[in-house]
């Protein structure tokens, strides 16, 4: 029995030893496989995860992907849409109303408001000192106005208050204020009169005066002169005589004076000494006839004067002076 037990024990020992050899072989095979995979693996390839990733790593990857998508969405939006999105997110998370984020338009100014604040009826050299961009806009608008005649507002004529302004380009083209009544609310074209008014006004806290002209119909002229009559501008026609025409007229006047003085002397002698001889009367009659013939023939003398010396210099008018003479009657 003891021999059997020992043998069994020895056999048992042999079986245990054989199992250890099998496990060693498997471990060696696993190592060899690992070495082969390491040799065959490329440097840019990632290793295979044999285990499940941790939850924190998963959440980090998700957040990174969400941030990437959000950034791409914000870049695709313009500045105003991005601003609206941020305001909406703020109201969504912190509460509030859209009215709290609206900009106040109480201090907004348009170009028309800037013109009204800085406009001047007449610009002086003193006004152009310390020019700002608002004053430059007003000055640029002032330079585009036409300052020959004014447009008047006579709605408060009973209070002796009138409003005047210069004409724009469209009004000049249509004839408003020159060929039509200069009243703002009147368009008559008959019986127009030109008036000269001393316009006293207050501008930027300073009292100023300006002499302006306007053309009005009879009804509007009555409104303008309701309290006291203004000065009416009438047409003054100037007769311009050239130097060539002035010389013969001067000669005619001298000859007429000589003939009149000789006739007066002749009459005076008749009253003192009585009648004179017929020869003297005939000679005086001949002299008077000669004077009358000389007065009636200025052309012959003028032709003779041409040969006495050089021709008188005649000043030629420029084109601007000719236009001024032509439009002189129209602008009065």
Break the fold down into its secondary structure elements and pairings.
Blueprint (H helix, E strand, L loop, with lengths): L1 H39 L14 H22 L2 H16 L16 H8 L14 H11 L2 E8 L9 E5 L1 H6 L18 E11 L2 E11 L1 H7 L6 E3 L9 H31 L4 H19 L1 H9 L12 H8 L6
Antiparallel strand pairs: 1-2, 3-4, 3-5
Summarize the amount of helix as a percent range: 40-55%
Q: Structural class from helices and strands?
A: mainly alpha
Instruction: Characterize the overall form.
Output: elongated
Low-confidence stretches: 1-18, 274-286, 290-300
Strand line-up in the sheet with most strands: 4-3-5
The number of distinct β-strands equals 5
Instruction: Let me know the largest β-sheet.
Output: 3 strands, antiparallel
For the terminal residues, how far apart are their CA atoms?
A: 160 Å
Average pLDDT score: 76
Task: Calculate Rg over CA atoms.
Answer: 58 Å
Counting H and I runs of at least 4 residues, what is the number of helices? 11
Order of helices and strands: HHHHHEEHEEHEHHHH
Strand content bin: 5-15%
Biased composition (Basic residues): 231-240, 250-272
Pfam families: Fra10Ac1
Biased composition (Acidic residues): 16-25, 321-332
GO molecular function, one term: phosphatase activity
Structure, described:
Pfam families: Fra10Ac1. Residues 275-284 have a biased composition (Low complexity). Residues 26-48, 303-320 have a biased composition (Basic and acidic residues). The N and C termini lie far apart (160 Å). A hairpin with a 2-residue loop joins β3 (193-203) and β4 (206-216). Among the domains are: 64-98; 109-144, no CATH class; 146-231, no CATH class. The chain has helices at 2-40, 55-76, 79-94, 111-118, 133-143, 169-174, 218-224, 243-273, 278-296, 298-306, 319-326, and strands at 146-153, 163-167, 193-203, 206-216, 231-233. With 332 residues, the protein is mainly α. It has a 3-stranded antiparallel beta sheet with strand order 4-3-5. α4 packs across α5 (133-143). Helices cover 53% and strands 11% of the residues.
